[in-house]
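[Q] Does anyone have a clean structure-token version of this?
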Amino acid sequence: MEHTTVQQAAERQQISAGWAQEGFAQGCLSEAGKPEASWENPADAAKPKELGQENALPPPVSGSRENAIRGLMPLMNTPFQPGGCVEYIRGIEDGPVKEIAWAEYYYFSGQPEKAVQIAQEFLDCEDDAVRFSACLIFGFACLSTGRIHQAWVIFEQIRNAAGEPEKAPAQTGAANAFVRWAGAVLLHLPLPDELPALQDFLPMLPIGLRAFALYIQAHYLYLQGDYGKSAGVVEAALAMEAAHYPIPAIYLHLAAVMDYMSLIQTEQARTHLLEAWALAQPDDLIEGFGEHHGLLGGMLESIIKVHWPMDFKRIIDITYRFSDGWRKIHNPQTGHDVADELTTTEFAAAMLAARNWTNQQIAEHMNISVNTVKRHISQAMKKLHVETRKDLKQYMLQ
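[A] Here you go.
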């Protein structure tokens, strides 16, 4: 097979060489090979615009990784056309995979009660991929439905589900690692000591799950304060196949908003938020916006509240339900006292202040006066019993 250099691939796909290099290194292109000194990409590899947009899963091939973990988050792993999500699910053959796809849809569309009802039926399923999916969906949906003890039990099972990798198929081990990474990072908990590095199992995942795994890695880098590298992972993933998978793409775009707001690059953040919204709105996949509200630096107030006020109200409802359950798992597990008494507006202003934004910058971004910003931040600091902006950081989401 003829290969091109990183630079040639970057020029062909109209992205920077850095993004191409990061994409190959993170496994965005499964066909990429690594010769002695540089990454190369097959010259005939499909460009992002050439990738298919089928509304159904391809027929499973015996022995393929897609077949081995076909039941692992099937909706996440499908490049359905925006607006065609429900139609796609209805077309899946009846069985556990279809039920898991429905559970995903209900979860990502902000209907956690329905997601819990379906997912709990498969918590003991013999199919590893279906069981892993059910546990992940059930755990996060429980956070928004007040089932904190059940969520805690499930996340403990996920966290400790190391299994016996030497006896398990490689794809099963990859599915196991994927779910454990997701559970730890998205709850902002320490990674289990024995958890394999993401790069070790990333190539074993099918494209859609690989894209979401890259979102998880970007989120992890964000939590480490490495906003530039996190944004690089996101941009690389979206420049490759990830852009065609709506659910991973929504979460990747939201991670980019987090990064660029922390870097005080509001135009880039705005672009990514609108891209995420364009993917989410046709199928009402709004859960991620509520989950990430505190990390988006007032961007929802600046854009969604102004142009889509009814959707904004629903998103804020998701925020309050999810964040309440999230803190009840996160705070006892980590010993961190993440803020839980602030309104969403106070939280947004305090988050920006903790990220070294000035009052003027916050006011311009949130379309409010400087005095209103001062009032929100003062009220937040009063509720948190802190006296300086530096002290705010320990109470804000990291």
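[Q] Thanks! Anything notable?
[A] The first strand starts at residue 3 and ends at 5.
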